[in-house]
Structure to design on (696 residues):
């Protein structure tokens, strides 16, 4: 293990390959990087007036380089897809297909994403999950046709994390 | 240790005494049981049409019997009061007095309350913390005169937990 | 909604039916209530000298009445079983089948169980997960034949939660 | 806001200044970077045979550049010091001075540190907190003379986070 590799925090070949897969999985379920970047922009613009959409896009990409985020996406979207195909036994099948309000494992996975940038993302996550703006609302409306129990929470969490990351970086520069 | 005491989940003399203290601390900082119960009612009424204010009040009281909740309240409100008196060194003093947006320990304590009723309270917590309805808004407006860095998050968390508790109980009866 | 139902904390018909299912799922994967109760006894006996195995068994049962615990068990054990059958796509399939040390979603689900009795269960969870005593060790040894990526963490979490619950109740009586 | 600053993940002047303060606070309470690095080495060496102490030291330093970690340290150590001076009212004063086993806010703060590198640090945190090796044991023995209720959990969390960070980076290079 070389010192230089250990010291820098940037992406490595392994995490970049998994990042591409993560983006593919999200797109297959109907969510693009641009969808998420525009939500980051809409919630963070009032706090960071000089913010650009390009910076929001980069922030979403940095979040998707984190292994914990990738694992949450792979696991949650697999659960959505397998529930859609009717592969689960009861009572789990009905809970996932109906997005049961007492089934909180989707929020549990989302929280593991939000926590990576500290607790300041928590408020934005809850707000996005309740108000369902932009692509989160579109995902939610599709719930009759496809199972999106995990997808909407994962997207809200990625957006909240990317916004928290921008808030941290802006302050640290001051 | 008697079997009966271990089996039942209700309050014990120790937790009831601490509950009274918790209520006193919250009132001293400007928040009553009724303030919190009315917020529970306003966010939960649409899901539970037969809900009464009295049930909301009881749910808030049950939440305040939990030791983890009591400890979070004692710790957070002590931090608010001591910051108000200028007892902390820098950089903590400025962070607490200015409710620094990158200081997330208030959300961390709040999360420990929300988690007791499972992750379904997370969305309501984030929403309350962002929208600041009722007493949460009033607390926030007082931030010039008194330090309420922890108080607003603790109140949002207690309300979200009491609402989650009602949702769990309603479903379990069906 | 009747006041009496709202006020008491005990189990309801819905949660009892799901509890029986939870116990069946755990047994199908090789873990009995007695296995878990004996681990609770072994870690809590030194702090509570009058503790009996029967009390430990009851504490495990109370934990399994919580909806959040039931949902974590249904979800985690489904993931284990479906990974065993090779139903997941890569890269998730290899991560689950090999219990990849960077795959942390099993710990994320376990944490949602531990948190229900507050953070005091965290230390016991980590210790059990590292030392792997009793049935947790047996589960771990079977990892060649069956996929137990979630099972061992779920069992450690249920045991840690049942121990934390006993610690809370003992203190509250004093 | 420049693109370059937003894109890179490294430390900024603001976080570096706070990092120095964080190290000073830990040293004032009796814990050095070297103490923590040697614990990282002892728990991670068997998984990473080429690991050096210098890499462990760098990993601890990276962890201490995170704002969430700095805030947890400032808050927890202030609580320890003020409890030592008898500044808190009851019941909080006795809980902090006696490191009450039902007071879990120290674990709550520690968890906010561990979570930054994902849930894989959870097991190491619990293990360190239970076994109390190296400097954690020394802190614990001093509990008669000074209040270290938060210090031992914070140190265990920083060590667990630094070990998780090394595990993530090693895998990503493969």
């Amino acid at each position: 293990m070389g010192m230089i590799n250990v010291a820098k925090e940037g992406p490595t070949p392994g995490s970049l390959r998994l990042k591409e897969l993560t983006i593919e999985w999200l797109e297959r379920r109907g969510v693009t990087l641009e969808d998420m970047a525009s939500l980051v922009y809409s919630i963070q613009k009032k706090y960071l007036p000089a913010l650009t959409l390009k910076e929001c896009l980069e922030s979403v990409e940095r979040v998707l380089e984190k292994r914990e985020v990738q694992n949450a996406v792979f696991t949650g979207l697999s659960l959505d897809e397998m529930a859609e195909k009717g592969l689960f036994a009861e009572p789990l099948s009905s809970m996932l297909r109906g997005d049961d309000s007492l089934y909180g494992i989707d929020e549990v996975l989302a929280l593991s994403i939000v926590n990576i940038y500290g607790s300041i993302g928590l408020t934005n996550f809850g707000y996005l999950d309740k108000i369902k703006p932009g692509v989160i609302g579109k995902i939610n409306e599709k719930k009759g046709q496809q199972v999106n129990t995990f997808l909407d929470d994962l997207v809200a969490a990625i957006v909240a994390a990317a916004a928290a990351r921008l808030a941290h970086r802006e302050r640290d520069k001051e």
